[in-house]
Predict the 3D structure of the following.
Amino acid sequence: MTATTFEPAVLITGASSGIGAGLAREFVRRGLRVALVARRVEQLETLAAELRQAGGRASAHKGDVTVDGDIGRVVAELAAQNIVPSEFRKQSRVIALSPFTLEQVGEIRRHHSI
């Protein structure tokens, strides 16, 4: 049986503007894949396109940290593409996690009220 290889990514919430978008640009500049999450999907798509045009690896995901299950859904979408968040960045707090499972997402959300 062959083990599945997962590519690490930085998951950034609130990524459509401000600090979140700035973090995304910096992580891409440093050669990391980013998964962008926010409610404003058009702005996310624009940022993801900008990052890809600059040679980065970025994906845009509509999500709201205040909606139960949204972040878990995004993590599942990424896992289906063999991408696993190894860092989680919330715009108002910085939380580093490496790597985490879908089961841990609920615990993370409860602990940090996200």
